[in-house]
Design a protein that fits this description.
single chain; eight-stranded mixed beta sheet; Rossmann fold; alpha/beta
Length: about 230
């Protein structure tokens, strides 16, 4: 992930009308997606690791819902902003400026990795390592962008250059991830029950919704049965 690129956006993490506006809006559907797959429909007491947590946009609502949250990110500025904001909001969240290789305990009920895979050089390594730190019967949740002509037009060209929903250069076409390949990687790493759900963003009312199509954005989940 380009650390310098996100350094430039560090002051905007908690500006709900700034560069991360769509991510703040996305929280509504992200939380709903995770909750629907929980056995007792509750986050209380669950140990959650958020990979690529940035400024803590997803960590904070998970913490408010009763989860014990750890957020990791390789961007030092983002982690400091996350720590400062959590302190301001009186939330107990463990933020660490590390990569996933620094975590060795099989300690988490849930791992989240939202809008991250399309920014890293080797997302396969994240999935492989996650298998080793996720408890038996644990769940992995993520969201990313499909690699299709539609995603190139709408998620890259229009979103970055025309509508300017996100800063230009946020996404690299070559790093986008097709669901079938992602499923293969999860299955090869011993996960099961891989599922996807398409999502779509309306920039005019700043709202996300589920869709049967996954040609642009999609969320996914996988089950660690071992």
């Amino acid at each position: 992930m380009n650390s310098q690129f996100f350094d430039k956006l560090s002051d905007e993490w908690w500006d709900e009308d700034g560069s991360f506006k769509a991510l703040h809006s996305f929280n509504i559907i992200r939380i709903d997606y995770i909750r629907k797959k929980l056995p007792n429909d509750s986050f209380k007491g669950l140990k959650i690791l958020d990979i690529g947590c940035g400024g803590g946009i997803l960590c904070e609502p998970l913490s408010r819902l009763g989860a014990c949250v750890t957020g990791i990110d390789t961007n030092k500025k983002a982690i400091q902003i996350a720590k400062d904001h959590a302190k301001k909001k009186k939330l107990k969240i463990s933020y660490k400026n590390i990569n996933i290789d620094k975590i060795n305990m099989k300690n988490f009920d849930i791992i989240t990795c939202m809008e991250v895979l399309e920014h890293v050089e080797n997302f396969e390594h994240i999935i492989s390592k996650s298998k080793n730190i996720l408890k038996k019967n644990g769940l992995f949740f993520g969201s990313t962008i499909n690699k299709t002509f539609a995603s190139y037009i709408f998620a890259l060209f229009f979103a970055e250059k025309i509508l300017k929903i996100v800063p230009r250069g946020t996404h690299d076409w070559n790093k986008l991830v097709k669901p079938n390949y992602l499923k293969k990687v999860f299955l090869l790493n011993g996960f099961s029950d891989f599922q996807i759900n398409g999502t779509i963003y309306n920039p005019f009312n700043n709202l996300w919704r589920y869709t049967n199509l996954s040609k642009i954005n999609y969320m996914f989940s996988a089950f660690n049965s071992q």
